[in-house]
Design goal:
The chain is of the alpha/beta class and 331 residues long. It is built from 13 helices and 10 strands. Strands 1-2-4-3-5-6-9-10 form an 8-stranded mixed beta sheet, with helices on both faces. It has a two-stranded antiparallel ribbon with strand order 7-8. It is globular.
Length: 331
Amino acid sequence: MPSIRGGDGTRAFDAWVYEPRGGGVRGALLVLPGLHYLGPADPRLDRFNRILAASGVRVLCPFLPTFARLHVGPALGPDAIAAYDVLCGLADHPPQRPGVFSISTGSLPAAVVCARRSPAGWVAFGGYHDFAACVRFSLSGGQDGVSADPLNRPVVYLNLLRFMDDAPADTAPLERALRRFVEQTWGRPEMKVGGAWRVVSDRLAPTLDPVSRRVFLRATGAEDPRGEAGLRALTSAGDAFACMNPAPSIALYHGSSVIVHGREDDVVPVAQARALHASLCAAGGDSRLFLTGMYGHTGSSRFAVADAGRELRSMLGIVEGIARCAATRRN
């Protein structure tokens, strides 16, 4: 487990490296997780990385400190670059440059790496193009017939607290409660059904003082279900989240990319995939877009048997994209 010096040179964070067994290293991939408190320790991501390694690809997956705290911020890009450089410097590194695979909001640091390091390629799963639009989607409950994941709202509020006029002076207890809500609901799809998340919200709310409790209930959606308080805070934030705009980095990347997105993604709406793909094409890169009904944002989904042919074509394109991105070669 290498320790990586953060982009600002003052912090260190860990990463998990997955090595192929037997047959040597045929390619390398930096896997950038999205905003999740577990990072590479998420069992789903760990399993994915192990599968990649079994195919002959060396994988480095970092615990990005900002995402681990359930926040967004300007350190994401520099930290991802530092992780990429560590991957390039590992012993017995193959001659070709590593590729980048990003998940969800990991598309922002991935875009920065692509702009600054020219990797072999980039595969973005569930990535976004307009950060504010994703926030509005989450707060307002969805759009275009797709309901937003209710379990995502507390993290949005966590990042907007400093722009709320009625937030408590000491936000630490509130932040801890929001994190506990996330830890007790994420990865449990049954919590999305029939407002099952309310059990967790109702259990945690009484532990807070009245001011913090009011904000907490808005954050979970028990109150203010249309997210009006959060939307006002987003407006008050101004350009505070400009660091989460991938457009400047995308404009500098002219390499190959594969954009993969679930048609009914309930965290990052599918329109974001189309916008990301269009932006990469406009920058002059070779970008391919694959929309699938087999996967949502956090796991597998059902699809109609009649769509099997289309889904198979998408899956083949995705696998080919990963192989190209990792620059795999035959031994």
